[in-house]
Specification:
This protein is α/β, with parallel strands linked by helices and 235 residues long. It is globular, with a radius of gyration of 17 Å. Helix 3 runs parallel beside helix 4. The protein has an 8-stranded mixed β-sheet with strand order 3-2-1-4-5-6-7-8, with helices on both faces. The chain is built from 8 helices and 8 strands. It has a single domain, classed as Rossmann fold. The termini are far apart.
């Protein structure tokens, strides 16, 4: 039996990924900052739940201890993320972004990813087939964001793309450090979720496709890569 933890999984892409992996036979933990929302989501899916706030050291350590006591972990999906927006749901551009905006975004998207990885690495290292999936974005691609005339080029925000570019680097460096694990970054696409005020152009079912696929890679699968549903993305 494969045991999987998904952070920020009580709604959106995390919830849909959990649903699909439960269907695939995984024992899935719904990681949620709000214990009650996590409990309700887990009940709907036939999953387990653990309170987990990726911005809080004690919360993450307690979650790791609980999952270790239950038997360990094979797959970690770092899904929890934020995108700082101004009033009226507008993306904060370069003229208005502040250090505090950057710090808030990085606290969840970057430091939260490292905090969770650090806490759960001992469990993953004991797994026979450990897998890590880090949620990135097409906006993390320096190649794409400098390709004039494309939607990625036109995106005005600073904090969110910078945080996801950092996630890509984290992915590469962890993959090199732990070659027995499969550690990859994925771009789910512009999906309708609360993260972007439901302005996305595809469903959570479509967005979860690459997450679910990479969560199930075998020991001979890719590692240190950056993928969307169509294949490898340029850094």
């Amino acid at each position: 039996m494969t045991t999987t933890l998904i952070t920020g999984a009580n709604k959106g892409l995390g919830f849909e990924t959990a649903r699909r992996l439960v269907e695939a036979g995984h024992t899935v933990y719904i990681g949620s900052r709000d214990a009650e929302r996590g409990r309700r989501a887990a009940e709907r899916l036939g999953a387990r739940t653990v309170r987990l706030d990726v911005t809080d050291d004690d919360s993450v350590r307690t979650a790791a201890a609980a999952i270790e006591a239950d038997g360990g972990l094979d797959v970690l999906i770092n899904n929890a993320g934020v995108e700082e927006r101004a009033d009226g749901n507008a993306v904060i551009g370069a003229a208005d972004v502040t250090a505090d905006t950057m710090r808030n975004t990085f606290e969840t998207n970057v430091f939260g990813t490292v905090r969770v990885l650090h806490a759960f690495l001992p469990l993953l290292r004991r797994s026979a087939a450990p897998v890590v999936v880090n949620l990135s974005s097409g906006l993390a691609s320096l190649t794409r964001v400098t390709d004039a005339g494309t939607p990625t080029y036109a995106y005005p925000g600073v904090a969110y793309p910078a945080s996801k570019t950092a996630v890509n680097m984290i992915t590469v460096q962890y993959a090199k450090a732990f070659p027995h694990m499969r550690i990859n970054a994925v771009e789910p696409g512009f999906t309708k979720t609360d993260l972007n005020g439901n302005t996305g152009i595809q469903t959570v079912e479509q967005g979860a496709e690459i997450i679910v696929r990479m969560a199930q890679v075998g020991p001979d699968g890719p590692t240190g890569g950056y993928f969307d549903a169509e294949g490898t993305l340029p850094w």
